[in-house]
Amino acid sequence: xxxxxxxxxxxxxxxxxxxxxxxxxxxxxxxxxxxxxxxxxxxxxxxxxxxxxxxxxxxxxxxxxxxxxxxxxxxxxxxxxxxxxxxxxxxxxxxxxxxxxxxxxxxxxxxxxxxxxxxxxxxxxxxxxxxxxxxxxxxxxxxxxxxxxxxx
Length: 152
Fold this sequence. Notes:
Blueprint: H1 2-18, H2 24-41, H3 53-68, H4 76-90, H5 106-145
């Protein structure tokens, strides 16, 4: 499939160039548009993206938490690379338009593969932080919900 290899290379180059142009408004836009796209797919995830779907959702969550200020233990370059990958993904008319059956997400997959190589360690750290936050919330809600006996 040399034609698709060329398109994947073009998508990778377009993605790498776009990282340098990302600003905080783009980060917010990436989160908003990705959340909508994820919701639109529901459980009907494009086959090409199934293997990295959880990573896409995690990346979306990371830029949301960064933008909201709840998670800042990540370099701007990671946020910019993540936002650029997501903005590429949410653009339906990218190098290979997403509406083309079967192959429409091949270029998106290539972009995410490059992004995950670049941000993988930071995404893992974010995932661990997020799990810790969720565990803390569960522990705190258990304490708040506990019934205390009245001891006289």
